[in-house]
């Protein structure tokens, strides 16, 4: 399996959802991310990271609240927001980085 560092080096935008299993708003994001992946297909990668199972990555990127969404491309962090978003809003953001 590819490492986190390898995954964010992709030339495609990588949307990362930092979440926790106990977080209600995080649970609301799951169907949104599935819808987003269905509509954008292979143009993007979607990666979910459980902050409780991956505290090192969460700390490295200073994730203090969940859900926190980040977009990486070629190893660079291009966008970051916390909270719940619609698939349409995320698609608009991601298209800027295609």
Q: What's the level 1 CATH class? A: Alpha Beta
What is the element string, with H for helices and E for strands? HEHEHEEH
What is the overall number of helices? 4
What is the overall pLDDT average? 96
- Annotated CATH architecture: 3-Layer(aba) Sandwich
Beta-strand content estimate? 25-35%
| Share in helix | 25-40%
Number of domains: 1
Could you describe the largest sheet, including whether it forms a barrel? 4 strands, mixed
Could you give the distance between the termini? 24 Å
Described by its quaternary structure, the protein is single chain
What class do helices, strands and sheet pairing give? alpha+beta
Strand order of the largest sheet: 2-1-3-4
- Our Rg estimate from Cα atoms comes to 12 Å
Overall morphology = globular
Low-confidence stretches: none
Which fold name corresponds to the CATH topology? Glutaredoxin
* Name of the CATH superfamily: Glutaredoxin
Question: Secondary-structure blueprint of this entry?
Answer:
Elements: H1 4-7, E1 14-19, H2 24-40, E2 45-50, H3 55-60, E3 68-73, E4 76-82, H4 87-95
Parallel strand pairs: 1-2
Antiparallel strand pairs: 1-3, 3-4
Helix pairs in contact: 2-4
